[in-house]
Design goal:
The protein is an alpha/beta fold. The protein has three domains: about 350 residues, Glycosidases (TIM Barrel), CATH 3.20.20.80; about 70 residues, Oligo-1,6-glucosidase, Domain 2 (Oligo-1,6-glucosidase, domain 2, Alpha-Beta Complex); about 60 residues, Glycosyl hydrolase fold, CATH 2.20.220. Helix content is about 35%, strand content about 20%. It has an eight-stranded parallel β-barrel with strand order 1-2-5-10-11-12-13-18, surrounded by four helices. Strands 19-20-21-22-23-24 form a six-stranded antiparallel β-sheet. Strands 3-4 form a two-stranded antiparallel sheet. Strand 11, helix 9 and strand 12 form a beta-alpha-beta unit. Helix 10 runs antiparallel to helix 11, helix 10 crosses helix 15 and helix 15 runs parallel beside helix 19. It is globular.
């Protein structure tokens, strides 16, 4: 993965069309700005029950978006990351429909996890209470197969997403063929969606157990033989995230966005500094994604009778969430938790720009902090355009995460590209991509609790970010062949460049 800013986007929601329209953006206004792009699910269908994360055919590009040839054409221009959805498949997939029709006579009968396959000897109440799930309730859906047989299917997320037995021969072959298709299309990196839930074992939480690490390691080795890198998507306690990072190519730094918000809300940089001192260096950094703003990654972890403290106290996390709701004028409250379907227990649904009350200066400071943090930055398409909460889409769909999944028309995109805050963000992207210091060594300082400084050095090249949280201002100083230069961010202004 190139050490440059990456874009995260749906094919259709940014381009207003399909792959060809997206390709035109990379040859036009986005030319030279992104080292790669994470394309959110474009498989068939891309607009299912979970916005493409419930594929009917993971090996087929939805024809409304284009073809594998179109994917290959884009990959020739820029590196592509795609999602490998390892945990589940749609209840409308041909594999599941065959199992539904023929039950144990189906060649796919072993591909789908049922209660009985995980607990062949039955389960005690304590076994079921151990199972970790990101949503309320138990992960089972009752299904009546053809012939009248009833089975309890394992459904971690929704009843339309049937969990795959990745240890079954049919399950393995299913994933193998997707990887081979990705390689043919020129995809250079995969994001393992929901990989932490892929292995189920009696007497465990069925989440990130030792056998899960074995599965990820095997899949990583297989991907490497095809020239593909692996990014693992897991929300968990920060110490576990550090341990996971030692065993994979890339992990997300999910602790960074809420810590940046906490710092800007409170004027206290100490927790952010503490995290940046120990955070994984093989991280992909984000402020926003197609999901919500995670808070689980900051909180404590309970193992048996012991509790591991988090990066923030429960009281500080409550304050963080309440402030997001306040800054967004209550919009995030409408989209989060029991207020909306597809709820997640550990995420607040809100655009990052709205989480900061649409304050341009603070938003650009957040991006500067992200770009200076260790790792490779990814910018979500809504965040790239300083997008605001889409309450109309939320009302139409009833899905909380849709508040941050706006469909941009071509005209909207062109208009947003003219906004001063967006133009300034593109300047920061250009700087992060081009300055050689970001290939060097990182240090972080916080001489006072209300300030933080981050510095990169490589030989004689250097770049430094100084943020004063007391007055919400920041200065980027950096080496240049013509001498030292500066960029400034003030509360009510966008980036000013000292030439």
């Amino acid at each position: 993965m190139k050490n440059q800013v990456q874009l995260i986007t749906y094919v259709d929601r940014l381009s207003g069309g399909g792959f060809r329209e997206l390709h035109a953006l990379f040859g036009g206004p986005f030319a030279g700005f992104f080292g790669g792009v994470h394309l959110l699910p474009f498989f068939c269908p891309f607009d299912g029950a979970d916005a493409g994360f419930d594929p009917i055919d993971h090996n087929k590009v939805d024809p409304r978006l284009g073809t594998w040839d179109d994917v290959r054409a884009l990959s020739d221009r820029t590196e592509i990351m795609a999602d490998l959805i390892v945990n589940h498949i749609s209840s409308r997939s041909p594999q599941y429909l065959d199992f539904h029709e023929r039950a144990e006579e189906s060649p796919y009968s072993g591909m789908f996890l049922t209660f009985g396959r995980v607990f062949p000897n039955g389960a005690q109440e304590s076994d079921l209470l151990q199972i970790y799930r990101p949503r309320p309730g138990l992960p089972f859906t009752k299904a009546r197969l053809a012939g009248g047989t009833e089975r309890l299917l394992w459904t971690t997320f929704t009843s339309e997403q049937i969990d795959i037995n990745v240890r079954d021969a049919a399950g393995k072959l299913y994933l193998d063929r997707i990887l081979e298709q990705f390689q043919t299309a020129g995809i250079r990196c995969i994001r393992l969606d929901a990989a932490g839930y892929a292995i189920k074992k009696p007497g465990t939480s069925c989440f990130m157990i030792p056998e899960t690490f074995e599965f990820i390691s095997e899949l990583k080795a297989q991907a490497h033989t095809l020239g593909i890198e692996v990014l693992v998507e897991i929300h968990t306690h920060y110490e576990e995230q550090i341990q996971i990072a030692r065993q994979v190519d890339w992990v997300y730094d999910f602790a960074l966005p809420p810590l940046i918000l906490h710092s800007l809300y409170t004027g206290d940089a100490r927790q952010l500094k503490r995290w940046l001192e120990i955070s994984p260096r093989n991280a992909v950094t984000v402020l926003d994604t197609h999901d919500g703003i995670g808070v689980l990654d900051l909180g404590p972890s309970r193992k048996g009778s012991q509790t591991q403290p988090g990066l923030l106290s429960p009281e500080a996390i409550d304050h963080l969430v309440d402030t997001i709701h306040e800054r967004s004028a209550g919009a995030s409250r409408q989209a989060t938790g029991a207020a909306a379907s597809n709820l997640d227990l550990y995420q607040v649904n809100c655009t990052f720009y709205d989480a900061l009350g649409r304050r341009d200066g603070e938003y650009l400071i957040s991006r500067a902090l992200q770009f200076f943090a260790p790792g490779i930055p990814q910018v979500y398409y809504v965040g790239l355009l300083a997008g605001t909460n889409d309450l109309d889409l939320l009302r139409r769909s009833g899905v909380g995460r849709d508040i941050n999944r706006h469909y941009y028309t071509h005209a909207e995109l062109q208009e947003q590209l003219k906004a001063p805050v967006v133009r300034s963000l593109f300047e920061l992207i250009r700087f992060r991509n081009a300055h050689p210091a970001f290939a060097g060594d990182f240090r972080v300082y916080s001489p006072e609790g209300h300030s933080i400084s981050m510095e990169w050095r490589k030989s004689s090249d250097w770049a430094r970010l100084d943020v004063d949280l007391a007055d919400r201002s920041a200065v980027i100083s950096y080496s240049d062949p013509a001498g030292a230069r500066k960029m400034a961010i003030a509360p009510r202004t966008v980036v000013e460049v000292d030439r």
